[in-house]
Amino acid sequence: MVPACRQLSRKVLPILEVSQNGKSVWDTGEDQRVSESEDRFDSHTFILAKEGFSEGKHYWQVDVGQKKRWDLGIASESAHRKKEITLSPQNGYWVIGYDDGIDYWARTEEWTHLGVSGKLKLTKIGIFLNVSARTLTFYNVLTKRKLHTYTTVGPGKLYPFFSTGSITKELDKEQLTIESCKEVEDK
C-alpha cells in the first residue's frame, strides 16, 4: 500500500504550484489556470495530501528549507476550506508554523510558543500521527527533538496539511517538500 501522504492534491489556490511528482509546493506569485473545486481552499495558501488516514500510525518528513513562513500538520476531512479560516484544533486543524522567519508556534486555541533555541532554524520537520491514540507529534529531524504533541486529534479522516504561509508583499518561492512517508507497524 502506498502511504497517503506521498503526494499533494492538485486542488490548490491558483497562486500555488505543485511539482510534477506531487511532492513539492511553492508560491508562484501569479494566478495559474485551475479548475473550480469544492475541495479547494479559496482564500489561503493551504494544501492537503491527496489521501487521508482513518487508522494506523504514520510518519512523514517535510523539508521546509529556508522558507520564512509555513504551517504543517493535519486537517480533519470536515474542516472548513472556504472564506476566513483560523488554524486551531477547534476548527479541525492541528498544526505548527513558522512566522516571518522569527518564531515557531503550535496553532492551539491560544498559540503555544515552541522553544526552538537560539538562531537554530528548523529545516526538516518529522510528523508522527497515531490515529487510534489520537496523537500528533512534531519533531526536529536534525536534532531528533520533540517540538510539540497534540493529545486529542480527530475524530474522522485526517489529511496531512501544508501551507506556504500567509500571502504577503514579499514573495517566498522556497518549496515545501515531502521527503519521506511511511506507515509505522507495531512491533
Automatic annotation (TrEMBL):
Boundaries of every B30.2/SPRY domain copy: 1-180
SMART domains reported in the protein's UniProt record: SPRY
Domain of life: Eukaryota
Pfam family name, one: PRY
Keyword flag RNA-binding: no
UniProt-listed InterPro entries: B30.2/SPRY, B30.2/SPRY_sf, Butyrophylin_SPRY, ConA-like_dom_sf, PRY, SPRY_dom, TRIM/RBCC
Record flagged with keyword Transcription: no
Keyword field: Neurotoxin, Toxin
Function field: Neurotoxin that produces dose-dependent hypolocomotion and hyperalgesia in mice. May directly act on the central nervous system, as it is 6500-fold more potent when administered intracerebroventricularly than intraperitoneal.
Family named by the database record: Belongs to the ohanin/vespryn family.
Protein name according to UniProt: B30.2/SPRY domain-containing protein
The species this protein was found in: Salvator merianae
